[in-house]
Amino acid sequence: MTPNKPGAAQRQRLKQQAIPRPPAALILSTPVHLIAFGFGSGLARHAPGTWGTLAAVPIFLLASALPFYAYAALCLALFVLGCWACGESARLLQVEDYPGFVFDEIVGFLLAAAPLVAWFGFWEPGVWVGLPIAFGLFRVFDIVKPWPIGWFDRQVHGGLGVMLDDVLAGLFVALIGTAALWLLRGAPPL
């Protein structure tokens, strides 16, 4: 009989217990840590990933006023910034990854919600229906890490490794959202 392997959520809890918590004053006073920790949302003691995703909602609401191509460019720029900030923060804290690094959740959620920008205008009613659905699906994909998300989470390291699993989770949700909206509303009015 083989022992049960810990699931993604259990591995995350074990990782969090093994790494000492950095002082909040250090995180909030150092720009690279402030970015990696999602402007402080990653300092939450419980469910920092969920808090980081919640921190993405007001960013989404502001960015949703952009044309879709500008929104996509913003997501790409934030991904590059996140790879650098999370990698540098990990180096400074001498960790591979840290549960409080939630900038990846912010970028991943912005990608998950991208179909809402493509199909709806700034703060239209469809956004308010789709936003909690995108939020819930993103959290499920981020926590469960189905293949290939889990594989990339284990195999890719550094700042890119911190960011990639959440970006992939966001892209999976965006594909689901795109398919659903295309079926319900037709092609996006880009």
Automatic annotation (TrEMBL):
It is a multi-pass membrane protein. It holds the Pfam family PgpA. Its main location: membrane. Its EC number is 3.1.3.27. It comes from the Bacteria. Keywords: Cell inner membrane, Cell membrane, Hydrolase, Lipid degradation, Lipid metabolism, Magnesium, Membrane, Metal-binding, Phospholipid degradation, Phospholipid metabolism, Transmembrane, Transmembrane helix. GO terms for molecular function: metal ion binding; phosphatidylglycerophosphatase activity. Residues 35-179 form the YutG/PgpA domain. GO terms for biological process: phosphatidylglycerol biosynthetic process; phospholipid catabolic process. This is Phosphatidylglycerophosphatase A. It comes from Hydrocarboniphaga effusa AP103.
